[in-house]
Amino acid sequence: MSATATNRHWVLTDRPKGGNFEQVLSLREEPAPEPGPGEYRVRTIYLSLDPTNAVWMQYDSYLPAVPLNSTMRGLVLGVVDKSNHEKVKVGDLVSGMGGWADYTITDGKNFGRVPNIPGLPLVAFMGPLGMTGATAYFGLLDIGKPKEGETVVVSAAAGAVGSMVGQIAKLKGCRVVGIAGGPEKCAWLTGELGFDAAVDYKAEGWRKALRAACPKGVDVYFENVGGEVGEAVLDLINIKGRIAFCGAISQYNATQPQPGPRNLSILVSRRARMEGFLVLDYNPRLGEMYQEMGPWIAGGKVKWKVDLDQGLENTITSFKKLFTGGNTGKLAVQVSEEPARG
Ligand SMILES: NC(=O)c1ccc[n+]([C@@H]2O[C@H](COP(=O)([O-])OP(=O)(O)OC[C@H]3O[C@@H](n4cnc5c(N)ncnc54)[C@H](OP(=O)(O)O)[C@@H]3O)[C@@H](O)[C@H]2O)c1
Known about the structure:
Structural class: alpha/beta
Order of helices and strands: EHEEHEEEEEHEHEHEHEHEHEHEHE
Bound molecules: NADP nicotinamide-adenine-dinucleotide phosphate
Number of helices: 10
């Protein structure tokens, strides 16, 4: 069956401007590639959609920009369907850096085996126990270093990373305030995820609401958004506060360079620290996350949601949700069926 498989893949034909993704990505169909010596082929089951994909389309950052006229890069979770690799066999479940495609060929360097934690659905390894969970876990604990009783604020709080950050901070004994767009997301944060307060940054008077939600100021800010939201939180940062700079989604589709926070000098008077981090650097420490987060996820102490769309052909429509607030939890596309698991 796989010898005649077709590979649909999204090809990047130009650099996007202002979020015009439809105009720069085109879906092509070709015979699926065959693995060479020492390589294996992964059939994509789940494709992760991440804000940083927009950066990869545009310019060199921590990874080189995706070359024009090649398959768009993306994180995939899939099953090995052909293998010439001595340590990987057909049927193995793996995740790693692949493409917006039905199939990826790899020598295994950018892929790892999906761990088998009983009771957890496969899709959990695309969300809370995948790159998303690792970003929240290491960004909050390693960079933010929250202490019991402190106030932690997180932006894009109802998104993939943000929803995990708030719950981990609660488990560490903090007061947690989420910032998200719209009353439904805010109700989800306080009603289901146990956040102490949620502020709708799209509502009138949200800066005042934020101040009221943080009566003792902000000790740790987990920054996902940048721009005005970031500035408003910075105003409230406490002496020796920590800002874990995870991302700035409000700026990823900007057509002009964006100004930095106008109140950056507050870091001086508050003796506060702002530090960027990349989840990729934590790959060697993923075991720590599985050990602590695995039982939280399996035991329902940390709740999670994958916002799952269907079909590779719908990838762009789905991807755009990240920039309009259309997703709650981790955004992903299901590209093919999961194999039966024993
Ligand atoms: N440093 C790392 O290694 C690393 C790893 C993964 C992710 N990240 C970063 O973490 C952040 C969150 O990523 P994610 O995967 O968890 O995505 P996500 O939060 O699930 O989705 C993005 C959310 O951002 C919010 N948003 C979009 N445009 C906005 C704007 N202009 N102003 C304010 N909020 C906006 C939307 O929620 P609302 O409805 O609330 O507006 C949207 O649902 C991103 O900045 C991403 O680049 C960094």
